[in-house]
Specification:
InterPro entries: RGS, RGS_sf, RGS_subdomain_2
Protein name: RGS domain-containing protein
Organism: Cherax quadricarinatus (Australian red claw crayfish)
Oligomer: single chain
Largest sheet: none
Shape: globular
GO molecular function, one term: phosphatidylinositol binding
Strand content: under 5%
Pfam families: RGS (PF00615)
Distance between the termini: 80 Å
Helix content: 55-70%
Length: about 260
């Protein structure tokens, strides 16, 4: 019955004039869309779910040497507090504790992440599609030229912005726009990571049980993320300025030696 109602609801949404439906997997893969989904979840008191999911994805792609550190942050931030932002049964929680003690791998966290993903899709995705936050996301995406289908392409697949001397101003502007969109999406991803790290640091400080070295290391990561965020933010602003004035730049040579 739940599946039938969900399918019917999605079908009715697709028939709404002018309504663009972003598929759930595309939503998760887009840093831009996740930021708005996170805002919506915060509004309904469920923001921890998307933050937890993002933290698990970070472990999936991190070096194995960082698995226990990242796992400890997840444990103290989402699973250990009372009440926990993300609830799991006792056997699963013991599995996480076994991982933190080095007795098993991080697969238990991946399983929780998959369950959280199903919860997000089944309980909150359709509500997001009809929310004012989703409407605001589509409006901003249109203004900024965000393409949800291509923004998450691997960095290695992004083409060079250098063209031949005969390349038109319009083509250069399009390439700069693509690069700027990628940079803005990366900026949103950095902001998401920074928010998660700050939450983790707050939880570690409050629990009073965390290793001081872990806290110090996390503080260093937060400082580096803030620095990276500021540099990328400046880059996005300058790229926008450069693109807006393509074709009008002039160089004045004062002297030649």
């Amino acid at each position: 019955v739940t599946t039938s109602l969900s399918d019917s609801f999605s079908h009715s949404l697709q028939n709404l004039p002018g309504r663009k439906i972003l598929m759930f997997q595309a939503l998760l893969e887009s840093a831009f869309a996740r930021r708005y989904f996170s805002i919506y979840l915060d509004e309904i008191g469920q923001g921890a779910f998307i933050s937890f999911w993002s933290a698990v994805q970070e472990i999936r792609h991190a070096d194995k040497k960082l698995h226990h550190q990242l796992g400890t942050e997840i444990y103290y931030t989402y699973l250990s507090p009372h009440p926990p932002p993300v609830k799991v049964d006792k056997p699963t929680l013991r599995g996480v504790e076994a991982f933190l003690l080095g007795n098993r791998g991080p697969e238990v966290l991946y399983e929780i992440g998959e369950e959280v993903e199903r919860t997000l899709e089944e309980r909150h995705y359709t509500g997001f599609l009809v929310s004012s936050t989703y409407h605001a996301m589509l409006h901003q995406a249109a203004l900024q030229g965000v393409d949800f289908m291509t923004e998450c392409a691997e960095e290695g697949g992004v083409g060079s912005t250098e063209g031949s001397s005969t390349e038109s101003v319009e083509q250069m502007q399009m390439q700069l726009s693509d690069h700027s969109s990628y940079a803005r999406n990366k900026l949103a991803h950095l902001q998401e990571r920074l928010t998660n790290k700050l939450l983790a640091l707050q939880a570690l400080r409050q629990c009073g049980k965390a290793d001081a070295k872990v806290i110090t290391h996390l503080e260093g990561e937060i400082s580096q993320l803030r620095s990276d965020h500021k540099l990328l933010e400046t880059h996005v602003e300058r790229t926008g300025l450069w693109s807006d004035n393509i074709g009008r730049w002039r160089v004045h040579v004062q002297s030649v030696q």
